[in-house]
Write a structure and sequence with these properties.
TIM Barrel; 17 helices; 8-stranded parallel β-barrel; 3-stranded antiparallel beta sheet; alpha/beta; 18 strands; elongated; homodimer; about 40% helix; Double Stranded RNA Binding Domain
Amino acid sequence: MGNILLYDTTLRDGTQAEDISFQVEDKVRIAKRLDELGIDYIEGGWPGSNPKDITFFQAIKKETLTTSKIAAFGSTRRARITPAEDNNIQMLIEAAPDTVTIFGKTWDFHVREALRISLEENLELINDSLVYLKERVGEVIYDAEHFFDGYKSNPEYALQSLQAAAAADVDCIVLCDTNGGTLPHEFPVIMAAVQKAISTPLGIHAHNDNGCAIANSLMAVHLGATHVQGTLNGFGERCGNADLCSIIPALNLKMGKECLGAGRLATLRSASRYIYELANLTPNKHQPYVGNSAFAHKGGVHVSAIERHPETYEHIRPEAVGNRTRILISDLSGRANILAKAEECGIELDSKDPVTLEILEDIKDMENQGFQFEGAEASFELLMLKSMGKLKQYFSVTAFRVIDTLRESDKAPVSEATIRVKVGGKVEHTAADGNGPVNALDFAMRKALVNFYPQIADVKLLDYKVRVLPANQGTDSVIRVLVESGDHDQRWGTVGVSTNVIDASYQALADALIYKLYKDNH
Amino acid sequence: MGNILLYDTTLRDGTQAEDISFQVEDKVRIAKRLDELGIDYIEGGWPGSNPKDITFFQAIKKETLTTSKIAAFGSTRRARITPAEDNNIQMLIEAAPDTVTIFGKTWDFHVREALRISLEENLELINDSLVYLKERVGEVIYDAEHFFDGYKSNPEYALQSLQAAAAADVDCIVLCDTNGGTLPHEFPVIMAAVQKAISTPLGIHAHNDNGCAIANSLMAVHLGATHVQGTLNGFGERCGNADLCSIIPALNLKMGKECLGAGRLATLRSASRYIYELANLTPNKHQPYVGNSAFAHKGGVHVSAIERHPETYEHIRPEAVGNRTRILISDLSGRANILAKAEECGIELDSKDPVTLEILEDIKDMENQGFQFEGAEASFELLMLKSMGKLKQYFSVTAFRVIDTLRESDKAPVSEATIRVKVGGKVEHTAADGNGPVNALDFAMRKALVNFYPQIADVKLLDYKVRVLPANQGTDSVIRVLVESGDHDQRWGTVGVSTNVIDASYQALADALIYKLYKDNH
């Protein structure tokens, strides 16, 4: 049982990702959440390269963190000046973080081509930058940039550069796979050589360019590293940094390593979600441990086994990381899936009840028509409720019309929908414009219903997908529409199928609203 | 230098993914593309579990594959019957594939809890199922389900189960990490024990539940496995299967292993894209090797280094896998692509011609709007021709209207389109019904044009895809429509983008007809 220090660089290396840009307020909110999660170090930015980052270091001082230390990032001094003359280094000290991390060059090729100085001079500036900082800052970490490529190019020199850092008595030396090209089987030999050359505690900083960042990080820990750098959700340049959302549970649950505090691992999924939200990115369904699909089961054989013994097809208990088992409904599914799904929705269904078999038949029939209930669990739930006679008729649409018009002078067509809806004997007949026919129909339907059901105003259309299913020869193609809707506390998916895209969309939209009304009632 | 056999299970294990469902036609198209890529084995499905899969094995026989063998998947026989009496096994033989792969139980816990038979009986049914198949099928592969978990629970029994398979003289024994929970550092000891127990060639089948599927696959090869199972893009249940798009280049470029044929590695990215398209999924930007961001550089320091020496921040040359370096601030690398594309279409374009730069600007502008020309090469070609002044105005649509009506007595809405088209001074004003607004508009447009251009009658709409692109805050979502059309000798793709789905569809449909007229002229 050893203790591993977690170093999160979502706020620095994470923002190098193509699609990520955080405001200072976002960075402060993320830092507070990482602190709650129990991360040991939060790298807040590079004060010498980015004015936004200076503001962050000022702002974070006003917050009370209970666990995390704040680290500032920078580089070794420039050539031919002293650390005291180096603006970059001075700004690190001014930022007044708990910890300073600077990177230096390990790879002889980079020393010659990027720094354009002698190998000897590089060793000097690594050492004196670190000595200078170590005298002025409580804790100093050294990131050996391109360590693995450097070692492969010139092992003696790469190790000398680590020794130059070790001689400055730094608190940790981090081996960086900056280009992300190293494979796990290369670690044992390289780590052994490092451990022979220096006795400073070692860290790992892996990038995911070959899809091995998580594995490489865990391999380094297995071989003795005690400090792991990464980002939540693996955000980072190119293919991303090592994903702490996978590393943390593996360390805790599989390798017997202590990290985070007691009871905090179960908040991992919600922390992951929170950061996706602030980054305005859709979470990766298939993300290990924390993704929506991470414990989702489709095959009938798997499902009946899972019900009896979850460990048959789950490598950990999903609850350990705040996730849950999900049973998917598809053409591969059997009766066990239906029962499991019903239970999940809080619907009592007896395996001997003929209605179970009826639902199964209905589903097979609908799947043959082109329905698909994965991603449309709300439609599935409505289907079950309807079969069991437990679904109220909230409204009925008796007529609608959608008109799209393009005239000579228009840049794009204009869409208008009219609709006639009946609710408890009352008829509402109304109209709305929209961006395209589906949008117009959606608006008109809500407008017609909102006077009867004000909560309809909370529902948002979040995603809309259309798939044309290949037709048999001589027949019309079938169109499947998947709609994702949400309100302030939930998201749900619905589906419609028809040869007519408007009809399929209408079915999915209507289901989305019915589901909202049903769930608010129960 | 060794030879590694690649075994793709996109069509079987890949379809276990939550969001994937392929029609038989899709499966045939994917198999053909995997064959072109140079994959050794294509696992087409499980004939005993799914009627759709039987149809696939019939359909694929009509195609000529140049590289790949087709494998059918199934399980060992059931208890208390002979292989000859086992329906599952008989259907494998009836499917008449080149290779049969069956899985059996390795984990004592599963034998007791799932099969509910004795450990001894399980060894018998592994052996006699394989012996029976080996006598009737050219090549037999054995998937040892849950091998790693089984080994950890009861190493002696796990190895005995492999020996039962080896005694049947199977062609390959595949160690499966079915639950995806194994870590790379566990491989050396386990693989050594296997290699001591049996001498059959070994394969690896890894799942990504701990984010290590790629690493585990490569680790197994490093330790002597010669057969790797995975899926393109890592499609698969829960967190996916091992992604062949990362494994293949690592084997080829980093581990000195032969796989695919000469020159085919550079088609990896386009194969990856093709399969995303057929699955109607958005490609993962950050996917190693083949993702759009895999070689995208944001930081200023990196960019200037990259310009001089790409190896400073790129672990491989992106061109090796058909990808490219992208500089996110000033993207000039596109010019070469444009020239290459023009050449491919038989259009003469001079790199010094200002029109090249203009096309580049147009494309950037359109890509910012949401256009995407992968899968819409006909629209791309028309764009180039238009910029060069080489595209004739075949027709202009001056107005259209589409009306969808649902009345009380209707089962589904009725769609009608009217259109006004001008061709060489003559105006045609006509109308048509259709299944949905897009279909009606398509019919009306053809009806208006066919008197001027009779060849329009040959064009068929083969596929129609709609994707909603994420909107910026406060703006409307943008919709992208991809249309695939065909005539008796060619297929082509076109694209349209708008906030209105009818407008986007109209653009793509109009391009499809213009392209037909252009190509018949040249």
